[in-house]
Design brief:
By secondary structure, the chain is of the alpha+beta class. Helix content is about 45%, strand content about 10%. It is built from 14 helices and six strands. It has helices at about 5, 10-25, 35-45, 55-60, 65-80, 105-125, 130-135, 140-150, 160-165, 185-195, 220-235, 265-270, 280-290, 305-315, and strands at about 170-175, 175-180, 205-210, 240-250, 275-280, 320-329.
């Protein structure tokens, strides 16, 4: 039977990640994965959907049952610990050839469960409140739900995203999530657009809008931003923030051709000053709005104004663009 190594896409991402894991070696302290009732309690703490908990338990690897998978799990946890709290990122974790692989579609859930103790220690060291920690780490379970919405089965095909949560880089404060970042990460266009001109190491907060968290009303976004204004100076006083930034299909100005000026999306757009340039997001906008990606726009449902806009735009052989924007903090 093929092991986990054979299930990865053997591309440059895999090569860099595998080389990184080989270089860092095993952690000084042994990595453990809870079992039985403790594992179930941990999964509920991380908001894993109840319908997926039996599969997470059943597929849990161990050094004895699956030494290949355990090698990646152990060193993946070690890598997260080495980069804990750092804006500099470790090499991106590798993607599975089949994100719905019957044996390994939940592998990264196991890795993050094993990484939980070291993440919690970091949060304790920063005195970050438990309710914010739990709200933030619940994004693991939420993304298992998103996977089911898109693929029809529970899994985690976006492990790269959850590495931020388990390294102390991102925090959910109400409706929005805020990622610690630097101006230089966003490229020359962002630096040129911002006034006054920033230094490369100046800090910014990247705003993210998670799924399954209710409508992104202006009031909910205002409340989140207000909380962020209090949170980051208190818990990261050494990182004064210059700007809020966002990169998303939600900032595509073409949406103004279809949506009411008072809609939540347009009012969210209006918070930002756009940076020149865009990138194609046809697949991602369909995933976020509808779930599965359908290659024929004519087959997409039209149940809401947004669905009609997205589907009709694509059916007219037009494209959606992701845009980057910022606002002064």
């Amino acid at each position: 039977m093929a092991g986990l190594t054979d299930r990865f896409i053997h591309d440059d991402v895999f090569t860099h990640w595998r080389t990184h894991l080989e270089q860092i070696g095993p952690p000084e302290q042994p990595v453990t994965l809870p079992s039985g009732d403790e594992l179930v309690a941990t999964l509920r703490y991380l908001a894993i959907p109840e319908e997926d908990i039996p599969d997470v338990v059943r597929l849990a690897p161990s050094p004895e049952s699956d030494p290949d998978a355990w090698w990646y799990l152990e060193r993946g946890v070690h890598s997260l610990g080495l980069f804990m709290g750092l804006v500099d990122k470790p090499p991106r974790v590798a993607n599975l050839k089949d994100i719905n692989d019957p044996e390994y579609r939940l592998f990264y859930v196991h890795m993050f469960v094993a990484a939980l103790p070291q993440a919690q220690q970091y949060f304790r060291d920063r005195d970050i409140p438990d309710d914010i920690v739990r709200e933030t780490l619940a994004d693991l379970g939420r993304n298992v739900r998103v996977h089911r919405k898109r693929e029809g089965v529970g899994g985690l095909g976006v492990a790269f995203w959850l590495t931020l949560h388990f390294r102390g880089m991102i925090y959910q404060l109400g409706r929005l999530q805020f990622e610690r970042s630097r101006v230089e990460v966003w490229g020359e266009s962002m630096a040129t657009a911002m006034t006054p001109e920033p230094k490369p190491d100046d800090r910014v907060l990247s705003l993210h809008i998670p799924d399954f968290c209710g409508p992104m009303t202006p009031e909910a976004c205002d409340e989140s931003i207000a909380r962020a204004h209090e949170f980051f100076p208190r818990y990261f006083p050494e990182e004064p923030v210059r700007a809020g930034v966002c990169s998303s299909w939600l900032l595509d100005p073409q949406l103004k051709d279809y949506l009411d000026p008072e809609s939540n999306i347009i009012r969210f757009q209006n918070r930002f000053r756009l940076v020149p340039g865009g990138y194609n997001v046809d697949n991602s906008i369909v995933q976020f709005v509808f779930g599965p990606v359908l290659t024929d726009p004519a087959r997409l449902p039209r149940r809401s104004t947004l669905e009609r806009a997205v589907a009709g735009h694509l059916e007219a052989d037009k494209h959606w663009e992701g845009r980057v924007g910022w606002f002064p903090w």
